[in-house]
Amino acid sequence: MPLTAPIRTHRKPRRNAPRTVLRAGVAGGVLSTIAVAGAAGTANAEPVTETIEMPTLSADLSTTVAQSAQATQQIALTMQTRAQLQTQEDTAVKNAATAAKKAKSKAEAEAKAKAEAKKKAEEAARAKAAAAARASRSSVRTELASSSTSTPSTTSSSTATGSAAAIVSYVEARIGDAYVMGSTGPNAFDCSGLVQAAYRTVGVDLPRVSQDQSTSGTQVSLSNVQPGDILYWGSAGSAYHVAIYVGDGKFVGAQNPSDGVVEHDLSYDQPTGAVRVL
């Protein structure tokens, strides 16, 4: 007897269902029945039928698969959002660093400009002071030129009296002593040291340096100097040399290391001005 096998079949679903459902199996329950009938060698053999049940994709499994797909999509979206935020943060940090660098460069440029402006202002001030000093020296020279025709007081040491005579006698007695920078006697002097020592003999304590001694009394004109007055060279307050006027158009001073304490006529080295202390 010929072998026959009745087979129940189902058509495959169309591809309009979600891919995740297709991968899980055919939607709905599928029952396939395979009947196999054969002859066992006799005409009286009965047909044998065998049924195979295929797994069924339940609604819960479909829902789970769909939820898993949605979760995967949500994770991907979250990762994309984080990537965008990180990019924005990196950009913000980069922009902040660039802005800070520009601000620093600007601050350094402003500081440099201020320093240069300050330096220029200081240089201008020094130039102005130098110009004023030159003008002052020029004025002094003009005054000296006009007073050079005047005859200084010819009062001699013999006519000086009191403290002035004592000061004149002291410096004249020191003629021939050595000039030593910083010395105030008794046998060596520098210019201001000699003047200070002379005035100390009459109880007057003068400042130590010539700059201060040139402003220690009343300024007098060179045409009106008297014995005992202090003569100075340079501007009052910034004099670089001092000596004592002794009368008869002469002065005594600690001149330099070569000459020591000497007496000279005023014409030897015209002083700038004079100060009267007594």
Report on the architecture of this protein:
The protein has 278 residues and is α+β, with helices and mostly antiparallel strands. It has five helices and ten strands, in the order αββααββααββββββ. Strands 5-10-6-7-8-9 form a six-stranded antiparallel sheet. A two-stranded antiparallel sheet has the order 1-2. Strand 7 and strand 8 (250-256) form a beta hairpin. Helix 3 (162-173) packs across helix 4. The longest helix is centred in the middle third of the chain and has 89 residues, at 59-147. It is rod-shaped and about 145 Å long. The relative contact order is 0.09. Residues 20-43 and 144-158 have low confidence and may be disordered.
Could you estimate the helical fraction of the residues in percent? 40-55%
| Total domain count | 3
Low-confidence stretches: 20-43, 144-158
Which sequence of strands runs across the widest sheet? Answer: 5-10-6-7-8-9
Quantity of strands, as a count: 10
**CATH class group of the largest domain:** Alpha Beta
Order of helices and strands: HEEHHEEHHEEEEEE
The helix count comes to: 5
Distance between the termini: 168 Å
Strand content: 15-25%
Overall pLDDT metric: 78
Radius of gyration: 61 Å
Fill in the CATH topology of the largest domain.
Answer: endopeptidase fold (from Nostoc punctiforme)
Biggest sheet character:
6 strands, antiparallel
Please identify the structural class as seen in this structure: alpha+beta
CATH architecture of the largest domain: Alpha-Beta Complex
Global geometry: rod-shaped
CATH H-level superfamily title of the largest domain: endopeptidase domain like (from Nostoc punctiforme)
